[in-house]
Write a structure and sequence with these properties.
Order of helices and strands: HHHHHEEHHHHHHH
Oligomer: single chain
Shape: globular
Low-confidence stretches: none
Distance between the termini: 49 Å
Number of strands: 2
Mean pLDDT: 78
Radius of gyration: 24 Å
Structural class: mainly alpha
Length: about 300
Amino acid sequence: MRDITFGQYYPVASSIHKIDARIKILVTLLFMITVFFIVSYSAFAFMFFMLALVIAISHVPYKIVLKTIKGILFLLIFTALINIFFTSSGNVLVSTRILSITDQGINFAIKMALRFTLLVLGSSILTLTTTPTELTDALEYLLKPLKIIKIPVHDLAIIMSIALRFIPGLVEETDKIMMAQKARGANLDSGNLFKKIKAMLPVLIPLFVSAFRRADELADALDARCYNASPTRTKMKVFKVKASDIAAFVGFAILMTMILLDKYYVGSFVSAPDLNGFEVQGLDIFIYNIIYRIG
């Protein structure tokens, strides 16, 4: 529980923190879309390198960012196993009466795990380098066109920001409740799956009570301050696009173009090597041919 960092803000002075929150949200969304266009392992390595470079520039410790992976480690392993055992295309490597493992299944499982990792790391950088207030204002600004069809954009932005802000608090509250229950003799770790689920009831009930209490207190606080009483609210900080913001967006646009070229163009005019059916795409073809010729 203590290792979950998603939704937390890491206060430090860096050029990434100073980038316009609207630009960071747009870049993060485009980054998530781009991740699904990656086809070669060389492109994956390049994306991880660029992500590591952004983390270094943001001055957020790698340890804090990588903690996010621990929260989805079970999901990564489970997804990889599903892809390995239930992908039937490709050459069969291991076969039993029930399941079979193919080279394409292993290839797909590795790429899916890499995509999940990139998605989680990219989104965590957004929350670690952007305050909840900046996220709220940026989301409201980006969703302004929806006001034309009478959608309450400001309320939606506030709801998303509060939900994001509540994640660290709920995680901390869950950890405290579990420690309190263990101190009273509760056994939360041993037994089979059904016993563990049943043992979590003394944790979930006070957690829900605490969450509803926090929501009620927050609603009272907003009402007491006459929040949203005026239809034309002003902002303490007005967004202004700077040259560094434009440079960051253009830099990512170039990166996205390179990934698309790797998928649809690079390697299309060079014959792919035959690796017993194992899928080789994009820049991997070039690298393999270079290594093959040198060898």
